[in-house]
Design a protein that fits this description.
The chain has one domain: Four Helix Bundle (Hemerythrin (Met), subunit A) (Up-down Bundle). It contains five helices and no strands. It has helices at residues 2-16, 21-39, 50-62, 69-82, 95-116.
Length: 119
């Protein structure tokens, strides 16, 4: 979970400094992915893809009501943006995208940490 929290802190810094919404969104995305690593007790991704992890999260946690579908939607939104090419012509995420995602990611990271610590 330390990695997830680190990515969240980096995202907040990048956004506060207005450096790059795309890089901020990528950090938020990685905070969610590293939270999934913790949930699934993975040290490395191995043969899995991020899409596999997200699908497993949906099946094992969202469909069972452990996590809200808002988290899944945020994860898929960030995945779609971060997995496009990083090209000059690519539409950059807007402030509203970051502002919508950040509280969802922050809550998710804290909820995963609480779940894993048995709280």
């Amino acid at each position: 979970m330390a990695e997830a929290e680190g990515f969240l802190e980096e995202a907040e810094y990048l956004y506060s400094e207005k450096l790059s919404n795309l890089h901020t969104l990528a950090k938020l995305y990685h905070a969610m992915i590293y939270s999934l690593f913790a949930l699934f007790e993975l040290r490395d991704i191995g043969e899995l893809t991020h899409a596999d992890l997200i699908d497993s999260f949906e099946r094992d946690y969202v469909q069972k009501g452990i996590f809200d579908s808002t988290v899944l939607k945020a994860m898929r939104f960030a995945y779609d943006i971060t997995h496009e090419c990083d090209c000059v012509h690519m539409k950059q995420p807007e402030d509203r995208d970051v502002l919508r995602l950040e509280p969802v990611v922050r809550s998710f990271v804290h909820e995963v940490k609480a779940l894993l610590s048995g709280q």
